[in-house]
Write a structure and sequence with these properties.
GO terms for molecular function: 3'-5' DNA helicase activity; ATP binding; DNA binding; hydrolase activity. By secondary structure, the chain is an alpha/beta fold. The protein has 3 domains: about 5-80, no CATH class; about 100-265, P-loop containing nucleotide triphosphate hydrolases (Rossmann fold); about 275-435, Rossmann fold (3-Layer(aba) Sandwich). About 30% of the residues lie in helices and about 20% in strands. The chain has helices spanning about 20-30, 100-115, 130-145, 155-170, 225-230, 250-255, 290-305, 315-330, 345-350, 390-395, 420-435, and strands at about 10-15, 30-35, 35-40, 45, 50-55, 75-80, 120-125, 150-155, 175-180, 190-195, 205-210, 235-245, 260-265, 275-280, 310, 335, 360, 375-380, 410-415. The strands form 4 sheets. A 7-stranded parallel β-sheet has the order 9-10-8-11-12-7-13. α2 (about 100-115) runs parallel beside α3 (about 130-145) and α10 crosses α11. The protein is globular. It starts with 11 loop residues before the first strand and ends with a helix. The structure holds zinc ion. Zinc ion binds next to loops.
Length: about 425
């Protein structure tokens, strides 16, 4: 028997992939069968991803933008399933005993207010402000209204961290985790945690859409993904953006009054953000091994049994450094991770469980991960891969625990450039706002 839940909920299918009986069954349940291209203001758009197709149809014409989700020829039909699901009422929705700070409570109040008015909202919260806890009451309100919620991030690691936290606090609600590599097959759930890419497969599906880390790669500047956010939400609904470093385009909308704003300058434990120490290195980090000033730092780390995150601009630089590290400090236990590493999650877990003392990483771990008591180093902080935003996020990995709020952050570079200057300036600015 077909499990219809695997199809329902505003999902977009290439009709030819579904057999005719199933198509008819879904149509009886309110699905719409439609052409894969639509005409809007004289433009030909792909109905699935809403990107512009060339005006002159070719013989074998297909949408190249969303081809990663399965090829759609312009001659294909799409089947868009119904999202008119009424979810069952539950006795208890939110099962969380944590306490919100006064600042978080203010943010929650503003979020719920925006929810009542179907108003898009930005939560601009410094790293470690506790923005995830702030969305719990919002999700609860939507669940009570029997609505459907999607929580999305451009980063799969962020989704994977978020999913068990939500399962724990909403134990009786159906929750799914969907991303390109997940083993879980899509099925209709009241809460869906997924990568932003997955939204391309939906149309008018969610009442509340929460986008975490909205400034992060690959969402930043990606037109298709921004379109996907727009079209996957129901017409009457709410989109929430969460960010510690919001992009200009969203701040512009705040300025124009299209999006309301909550600002949280303070970390949940009330201590300031660690301000980076800046170090100019005269020699390359790999010049005759590890730079003497860095060696002093490593001795400090070794002598005090400190845990350390070291960020690198690229995989080759990281790998070269890892070799030297092994040579100089054979007793130091460390792992290295990058976007290409298949064992990434496992290695991050090893570091979290203190099985290793040091983790070497590219910008892949710049956000969405929380460790207790770590010193953070950035090597080649002047490399183009480290934008102002990414340096702020990286510095935000330190001092997240109440007990160890003053973890140190060190930037090492050859040239003190604009991005380093701007990142340090913004962190100091945010700390000053709290004192006011
Ligand atoms: Zn497309």
């Amino acid at each position: 028997m077909t499990n219809l839940d695997e199809y329902l909920g505003g999902r977009i299918f290439n009709a030819k992939e579904l057999d005719l009986n199933l198509q008819q069954e879904l149509i009886n349940l309110g699905a719409l069968k439609t052409k894969s291209i639509c005409q809007v203001k004289g433009e030909r758009l792909c109905r699935r991803c809403l990107m512009k197709l060339s005006l002159k149809p070719k013989k074998y014409d297909y949408c190249r933008y969303c081809i990663n989700l399965g090829k759609i020829n312009t001659s294909d039909d799409l089947l868009i399933t119904s999202s008119d699901t009424i979810f069952p009422a539950q006795e208890v929705y939110l099962n969380w005993n944590g306490k919100l700070t006064a600042n978080q409570q203010r943010g929650v109040h503003e979020l719920l207010n925006a929810f009542e008015h179907h108003q898009d909202h930005l939560v601009w919260a410094v790293t470690g402000a506790g923005k995830t806890e702030m969305i719990f009451p919002l999700i609860e309100r939507a669940l009570i209204n029997r609505q459907r919620i999607a929580i999305c991030s451009p980063r799969v690691d962020v989704c994977i961290e978020l999913f068990p936290r939500l399962q724990k606090v909403f134990p009786t609600t159906t929750i799914g985790l969907f991303h390109g590599k997940s083993l879980e097959r899509y099925h209709l759930t009241q809460i869906s945690v997924m990568t932003v890419h997955q939204l391309v497969r939906f149309e008018k599906a969610f009442d509340v859409l929460i986008i975490d880390e909205v400034d992060s790669y690959p969402l930043a500047g990606n037109q298709m993904l921004h379109q996907a956010i727009k079209k996957s939400r129901k017409e009457i609904g709410m989109t929430v953006y969460l960010s510690a470093t919001p992009p200009k385009e969203i701040l512009k909308k705040v300025e124009l009054g299209q999006i309301t704003l909550s600002k949280l300058y303070q970390r949940f434990h009330g201590h300031p953000l660690p301000e980076p120490h800046c170090h100019l290195l005269f020699k390359e980090i790999d010049f005759l091994g590890i730079n003497p000033r860095l060696r002093l730092r490593f001795e400090q780390v070794m002598n005090n049994q400190l845990r350390l995150m070291i960020f690198f601009p690229s995989i080759p630089v990281m790998e070269r450094f890892a070799k030297k590290l092994k040579q100089y400090y054979p007793n130091l236990s460390f792992v290295s991770v990058s976007s290409l590493d298949k064992r990434r999650l496992e290695k991050v877990q090893q570091f979290r469980e203190k099985q290793v003392q040091v983790i070497l990483t590219t910008t892949i771990l710049e956000r969405g991960v929380t460790f207790k008591r770590v010193m953070v180093l950035v090597l080649n902080a002047d490399a183009k891969e480290f934008s102002k935003t990414s340096l702020i996020q990286i510095a935000g990995r330190a001092g997240r625990d109440k007990k160890y709020f003053d973890d140190e952050v060190h930037f090492y570079y050859h040239y003190y450039n604009q991005q380093i200057y701007q990142a340090c300036k913004e962190i100091k600015y945010l700390n000053r706002q709290v004192k006011k």
